[in-house]
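All the exercises in this workshop are built on plain-text protein records. A record pairs a protein's sequence with a compact description of its fold. Backbone structure tokens are a discrete shorthand for how the chain folds in space. Once this layout is familiar, the rest of the handout is easier to follow. As an example, a complete record with its sequence and its structure tokens follows.
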Amino acid sequence: MLKIVFGDIAGAVYHPPTYFDNQYEDEWITDPLSVEMIRDIDKSEVVSANLIQSPVLGPIPVKEISGGVKTLILMAFDTSGWIFNASACGDNCAKWIMAIGRKKDLTINLHHVMDFDGVEDFEALMVNTGKTVHSYEEYLVEAISIKER
């Protein structure tokens, strides 16, 4: 289940891209989930564990993929127990965050109200209040009430 914590918290990695650059494993990059996320978010193709083909930048090393994709890959594969700042992702990552949260317990940290509009079967536990929300509209109401505190 997806769990969302708003605001500064202990145990959160505020800048996941830097953490990724120093911790990722080659097999994470070639996993079908990563290949699909890189294709969708960065519009790029995984050639190998060390090479990505970008339509804009040409051949690039893995460390040059977007911060959003790096954060998603960490959410999917890192087992360190860190909570990752999902505000490092663009709203185009929201559907992937939910997909990862459906496959495993995933706690994310947000510093903004992420746009989950259009994400199917939305469900998340709002850790700040303990309320489980079951739609984007419920999420918005709860998120705004948290941000106003």
Notes: The chain has a mean pLDDT of 96. Residues 2 and 98 are 7 Å apart (CA to CA). The radius of gyration is 15 Å. Helices lie at 16-23, 26-30, 32-42, 67-77, 94-103, 136-148.
